[in-house]
Amino acid sequence: MRRITRKKALTLVRELDAFPKVPESYVESSASGGTVSLIAFTLMAVLTFLEFLVYRNTWMRYEYEVDKDFSSKLKINVDITVAMRCQYIGADVLDLAETMVASDGLIYEPCVLFVSSFRTLLHIQERLRVEHSLQDVLFKSAIKAPPPVQTRSDNNLPSPNACRIHGHLYVNKVAGNFHITVGKSIPHPRGHAHLAALVSHDTYNFSHRIDHLSFGEAVPGIISTLDGTEKISSDSNHMFQYFITIVPTMLNTYQVSADTHQYSVTERERVINHAAGSHGVSGIFMKYDISSLMIKVTEQHMPLWKFLIRLCGIIGGIFSTTGIFKNMFSIELFIRFNLKLRVILNN
């Protein structure tokens, strides 16, 4: 009874076979069929290789959400060289709440101001403004920004005529104003003030080079917008203004995973001339504001199951197409053979 049941089951399974095999005696190979098969296998190999390259490639996904972190401190990394002596200038931060941030983390280092060569860095930044997809390449490769230009120490160099201000500050995550102006800063009940009365106007020169300016932790793959910026003052009473919008960024790639900040900037400069109605204070002013939106940048790639499905589609599609082509070619040959046979019989 068990054997009969097995035979019936096997018979039922055979009847359900959707892919019946053709006996080899009914199969005839031809040169045209071999040519089509060779072309099909070559096309399969090429498309499979290209599909594998697509599978290995990654892309960046950008998501936006509200930044809910208001209690943490914001780190400002500064490296600026100003064409004035260190005893004549002072740098500090005044935030929106009129809170003066101590500049203890900044170092004043006398140096000689050279016009440095930042052509490569400036060219990259220029292309980033046009080709936004280049930023994805920087994120993936985790390219580090070039190190700041160090002060040259040579006995043959002239005496220091500039001041390099570098270091970092921790400020509240509110809008503020980081500035470098004449005189050292002192606390004041209504904010703060700079002791500029004892500095002669003839010594004013706010030509400067921004070697580095960033917010948050240093992360490979992010080149700060103002890095390499050089400004030459045409007048002693000159005001340079940078209006900065800071965007919190959460970066998660296969190379780096960190929380940092990016920023955009609008520049403005003018000569202070009270007689002509151009009022203000000479110096370098960086007014920053923090965006309420946070950007999440995540590196992604095609999942394995999707790659296998696409691969099956390629192979199955080529097999079906070549099978149809071979059948059409065989039918065409059969029709031609019948036509020739009819002509011979009629003659």
UniProtKB/TrEMBL annotation:
Domain Endoplasmic reticulum vesicle transporter N-terminal: 13-98
GO CC terms, sorted: COPII-coated ER to Golgi transport vesicle; endoplasmic reticulum membrane; endoplasmic reticulum-Golgi intermediate compartment membrane; Golgi membrane
Chief localization: endoplasmic reticulum
Membrane protein topology class: Multi-pass membrane protein
Pfam families xrefs: COPIIcoated_ERV (PF07970), ERGIC_N (PF13850)
Subcellular localization, as worded in the UniProt entry: Endoplasmic reticulum membrane; Endoplasmic reticulum-Golgi intermediate compartment membrane; Golgi apparatus membrane
Transmembrane segments: 35-55, 304-325
Keyword tags: Endoplasmic reticulum, ER-Golgi transport, Golgi apparatus, Membrane, Transmembrane, Transmembrane helix, Transport
GO terms of biological process kind: endoplasmic reticulum to Golgi vesicle-mediated transport; retrograde vesicle-mediated transport, Golgi to endoplasmic reticulum
InterPro entries with a match to the protein in the record: Erv (IPR045888), Erv_C (IPR012936), Erv_N (IPR039542)
Start and end residues of each Endoplasmic reticulum vesicle transporter C-terminal domain: 161-324
Function: Plays a role in transport between endoplasmic reticulum and Golgi.
Family under the similarity heading: Belongs to the ERGIC family.
Protein name: Endoplasmic reticulum-Golgi intermediate compartment protein
Natural source organism: Gouania willdenowi
Source taxonomy: Eukaryota, Metazoa, Chordata, Craniata, Vertebrata
Encoding gene, per UniProt annotation: ergic2
